[in-house]
Amino acid sequence: MGRVAIFTDSASDLDPADAAAAGITIVPLIVNFGSDSFKSGVDMSTQEFWDRMTAPDAPFPTTAASSPGDFRDAYEEAFAGGAEAIVSIHVASTLSGTIKSSQIAKDMLPNREIHIVDSLSASMSESMLARIGVAMAERGVAAAEIAESLRARVPDLRVYVALETLEYLKKGGRISGARAAIGTLLSVKPIITVDQGVVDTADRVRTRAKARERLIELICARPIERIEILHTLTPDVEAFRDEVIDRAIGSIDRSTVTIGLVGPSVGPHLGPGCLGAAVLYEAAQVPNEG
After folding, report:
1. 20 to 30 A Cα–Cα from 25, which one of 65, 203, 219, 247?
2. pTM for this structure?
3. Tens of pLDDT, residues 243-281
4. What angle do CA 12, 17, 22 make, to 5 degrees?
5. How far apart are CA 269 and CA 263, in angstroms?
6. Four-residue CA torsion sign, 101, 175, 233, 44
7. Vertex 36, ends 103 and 19: CA angle to 5°?
8. Cβ neighbours of residue 77 under 8 Å, at least 6 residues apart?
9. What are the residues whose beta carbons fall under 8 Å from the beta carbon of 151, sequence distance 6 or more?
């Protein structure tokens, strides 16, 4: 293991094999189906989650944060493996108790250098920060500087997702029942955004085709530095990726734009049939004064 170890959690929707290849450690969140509990990506793969989620009469899944003990054990294993410091990047503190668990674990290891980074986002926005962290660590950048740099990029992160329904967000407690009911009554296709830790409605449109078009407009409104396409068992996702790349502002290497199936930690809040992207926009330029 490198001198600076990079950690994230399973709400990053980072494939375990890809994470291992990149040198990123994932601490799994818990997903529950009724009385059955699974560690995301460990006891239940993404495909197994969707098979169960979409099965007839399946109980609605719920999620829970990783425990402080899980984090402590994972951190101690990294230090035992030769790491001198850890940068741990996590799902928004406004959306999950995961980062609180990581902070408690840090406090359990007062003599170790551990930096906690709140992504103020979720899904592949987290994994983007983790990959940037790995690249910096490979260049020999100190852990404190990596953490500071990642925090500085958080305002440039967005997640946009076109949903089939707001019902799953309501069941997961991420929006009010009243807001979900309005969407249902109007028979609209909501587009949500995660921005600075807040899940909000970016727009509401009447048809799936219009939702797709509006989604691309929102994603491509600013110059893009990095982007990952996400979906929940949605057809034509490759065509969506190609259209986003063609319309994006800025130069994007098509080969770097991956498509990811949302996993067990975020999937319960979205439900099937969703399409979207995690985007890191180019850093805003602050004009020189004087």
Report:
1. 219
2. 0.91
3. 999 999 877 888 899 999 999 999 998 999 999 999 999
4. 75
5. 11
6. positive
7. 50
8. none
9. 117, 118
| Structure tokens belonging to residue 190 | 């909501």
Both tokens assigned to 7:
């950690």
Closest CA to 248 of 268, 212, 205, 219: 219
pLDDT at 286 over 50: no
Model pLDDT for residues 137-178, shown as the tens digit of each residue: 999 999 999 999 999 999 999 999 999 877 787 665 545 554
Residue 86 has pLDDT above 50, yes or no: yes
Q: Using one digit for the tens of pLDDT, what is the confidence trace for 109-147? A: 999 999 999 999 999 999 999 999 999 999 999 999 999
**Triad 71, 75, 79: Cα angle to 5°:** 170
E runs forming strands in the chain: 4-9, 24-27, 30-33, 36-39, 61-64, 85-90, 113-118, 157-162, 189-195, 198-205, 224-231, 259-261, 275-281
Give every CB contact of residue 125 below 8 A, 6+ residues apart in sequence: 119, 157, 158, 159, 194, 278, 279, 280
Contacts of 187 (CB under 8 A, 6+ apart): 206
Q: Walk me through the domains of the chain, giving residue ranges and CATH numbers.
A: 4-154 (3.40.50.10170), 156-281 (3.30.1180.10)
